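ingest -> validate -> predict -> emit
validate: passed (alphabet ok, no gaps, 379 aa)
predict: started
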Amino acid sequence: MTFSQFPTDLASVGSYDWPRAPATSSLKEGYRRLREKLRVLDDRNADLLPDDLERLSGSMIPDALWSSLRAYQFERLDKVYLEWARREEGPHTVCAFVMMPSVPRHFLADWAADRGLDLVDAAAVPTGGAALIVPDISSLVRRSLEGRAAMRSYLAELDGASRNVLLGMSSWTWTYLAQTSAIETVVSDARCFAPFGDKALAELLRAHIGDRVLKSADSGKGILAEDDEGAPKDRYLKTLAARAYGCPWAAMRLLDAAVNQEVDANGDATELPEDADHDDTGDDHEDAATWLQDPAVPKLPSRIERIGRFVLHALLIHGPLTAKELGMVLPMTLPVGIGSALERVGLIKIEDGKILVRESAYPHVRRILSEAGLPLDQI
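emit:
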């Protein structure tokens, strides 16, 4: 499948074009948060919405959309790294691929395995052969004198490697290492996925859920109708791209969480007939419209707000940690049950005894840390 509006290349780290929300959207978002804090819960858009809306219990996003997005991004990696990764002769270089925490876990490892490349944990650097793919070096990152010394030793080993090496890491790990371990002197090239703007998101939606009429609860208009320049007329997708920081996986998850549908007399969601004739403005088939109304965003309870921010910040830098490991990288004592408390809010999950930020919650986590004034990732 060909996508004309998708970014065709990877972005160089340091030149990522962060999507910006329209000014009016930013003001409205700030006003909405203020009303939430003041517990003013009246719905300003209630007059635009049908009375019988229900939030979908399942996902609106089909598997084909995720598969298409995965295949497309695999091809972006192929374009830059595949020939280089299969080359055995020198000169040898160390490259880095940097991902937002909202990119599916193990994405780089899945790509390397699918292409038959050599994978290794972030510990040793075997000699010889084609490129070595280290999908995630976060397990080596520890904010201590010993941890920084160990990372410098690892980078020195990479600097003398007799094969090409591709390091995978989160944008937060990269930012930390760039500030503390001079990783940019060893890595000759660092790239990341380029951002998806509103046009790319609209094209992705049209290709996979074009049989639905998607309407913004904020404006009452269809979000996929185009202007004369091919951009969506409504600002919903432009705002969505900004809220997702340009990550298409994050954008689709946020959109999925905002879905409401009308229900019929039997309590079933109203579906648009497959053979229905409609346009993207959403002016037709009113009864079949899918409405997008953003749910309340997750917030830290006041009793754990301060420690919660430090925990989330540490998890983004270090990756999944056990409770004991988490306590070792923070300058304060962790309260008992902090992991479970953050899990109940929906910001983290506990998997195989390790605590990690939920991919679906990453936009909310980054917003929480930004509003608290903590250092953010830079790509």
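The first strand starts at residue 11 and ends at 12.
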